[in-house]
Task: structure prediction
Amino acid sequence: MKRALITGITGQDGSYLAEFLLEKGYEVHGIIRRASSFNTSRIDHLYTDPHEKDARLFLHYGDLADSSGLRRILGKAKPDEVYNLGAQSHVRVSFDQPEYTGDVVGTGTLRLLDAVRDYIDESGKEVRVYQAGSSEMFGAANPPQSEATEFYPRSPYAVGKVAGYWYCVNYREAYDMFVANGILFNHESPRRGETFVTRKITRALGRIKLGLQDKLFLGNLDAKRDWGFAGDYVEAMWLMLQQDKPDDYVVATGEAYSVREFLEEAFSIVGLDWEKYVEFDPRYLRPTEVDFLLGDPAKAEKMLNWKPKTSFKQLVTMMVEHDLELAQKEKTLVDAGHDIPPSMND
Ligand code: NAP
Ligand code: GDD
Result:
């Protein structure tokens, strides 16, 4: 049985990847952060009591800011594959918390690589590492962006990811480690954090449709993104670690839409005119914006035999339907006299 260790297992991608690897028969270890309230809702459905004989998902407290903890976890989990998905992943928040974001996203990757390097030396095992790189690294570079495009990061988050990318290349070349950088374009799902624009829209839309909310405040509607489905993208992560040689790959759909087009598509599903509900709030603008991300996934298609399975329309529909159902549950609570929290903003 292969063993995998996932940082960021409680996030959107971590939950889909854990599901995918468990289905493939892996023993999966995940790093979670201690929090004052539960933060495992995305993986609760996968968890069984570790005392059970057939348990294959194990969680460890740790943090990418804490290298001694990472080293201890590697010793316990004894992984064949390590997926580094942990990050302060919100671009606008990275302008509020630049130092922390750089530490976790950039230096955190270095801490993990160095811990894996020593673990390989001590154990004699081959350990393969996947690094969650981002299309944000391309930033202001002209689209379409491919593996050959130069990075031009536009936020502390993106600069941190560029650092992480180069640490990975360096460890691959210096120590002959199997490290693959995935350069993933935006990917969404019903499990997407509620402060990213797609989920912020579909969450608000559900509530607007059911009369629980009447306005949605957004920033720049002209930005274009190459949006895919997170469930499709975790397969590409895994495929990168099944190759004979480590390499770097762009993962994208090859189609881009603006935030405005996402709004049009989502609101049209429920027969509403988005312009009646959406208002501009400059709070959601970034000091430096990334205007246009459009990936060229030709290398991943050719070398990994990977293709996205979910279209833009299917993705938007899946998210809208999920959030209508969620709003329906909230409406039941409201009708019974309970309060629901206001929708998230960011
Ligand atoms: P996400 O939903 O924000 O999840 C981030 C995960 O990282 C969570 O499990 C979070 O834990 C954990 N984390 C945060 N700070 C940490 C720390 N200091 N130490 C250890 N873990 C920490 O992000 P995602 O959308 O799943 O993305 C996964 C990875 O891919 C991230 O590295 C992201 O930057 C990158 N990426 C994402 C996209 C995308 O479109 N989704 C595209 C390109 C790259 P808590 O649950 O405790 O907060
Ligand atoms: N979050 C947010 N909230 N974004 C808004 C809003 C708003 O109210 N209004 C407009 N936008 C615009 C942003 O300015 C940006 O141009 C676009 O919507 C997408 O924003 P996000 O959904 O926050 O995602 P992102 O593209 O900045 O970053 C995501 O994708 C990266 C890959 O390209 C994150 O998942 C990153 O972690 C990931 O690396």
Observations:
- The chain has two domains: 3-190+227-251, 197-223+256-292+311-335.
- The longest strand covers residues 128-134.
